[in-house]
Sequence to fold (299 residues):
Amino acid sequence: MTNELLSNFSNQLADAVATASPSVVQVQGRRRPASGLVYADGVVLTTVRALGREDGLHVRRHDGQAFDAELAGWDPTTSLAVLRVAGLGTAAIAPTTSPARVGHLALAVARSWSNAVTASAGIVSVIGGPLPTGRRRAIDQVIRTTAPMHDGFAGGAFLDTAGGLVGIATAAAIRGLGVVIPASIAWKTAATILEHGQLKRGYLGIAGQPVTLPENQKGADGRDEALLVVGVTAGSPAASAGILVGDVLLDFDGQPIESPEDLLDLLVGDRVGRQVTLRALRGGAVTELKVTVGERPTH
Fold:
């Protein structure tokens, strides 16, 4: 009898993953792909961490077909990003109507580097907040879970045992517990991004990833994190300014940069069309570059 109960429960979990997985897509932006959720027809919700760049984005459907994706906008508070994907043709995933409770079993579902479904299980360990995210911003509530999640889970689904969407995975962790943004907050954020998607957003045309600086290259403030340029789009403002692959970006317009999120955050506002100073490490020496911030195309 015990084996039968376990088998039935195991099948229930597998069914939950199978039901949700077509709405979990692969997002290609970083060197290593991550995940996203189909929010609506032709719209994918993911995280800035999953993107790692501003352009050259693609979304891969469950059947392997790849589509060009355009960044519609992103939210600096949650680091959630919305992509427009013409012709995606995949059903949207629906948030659960049952609130999560501490102690609930849950499933994290994502796409692997090969686009296969990958899943892990754990419990809802903590439901709390607000979680400060910098510059006087905070996420009202977050869920923390024991479900193991590597970087590829960023933008993936966090499900209850019935397959309902509880939240969107971030692949970030606090004290060893994975951080999940509740579906209610994520969906409200996505709606806001889509509503205000035509606001001016700055554009440089680089792909970057965080890098740790060696001891002899740390800043005067002791900061040891910066942004390594791993790609530069031809004809972009970054290319025109002479930014090269391998440059390590330290500051943008006097503000420190330690991640792609930091840079995107600084490109929101009135910097479009302005020439700003970008400080970088090149060949072990600090150099200053002048870059004129472009405007991200809206189509």
The CA atoms of residues 29 and 51 lie 5 Å apart.
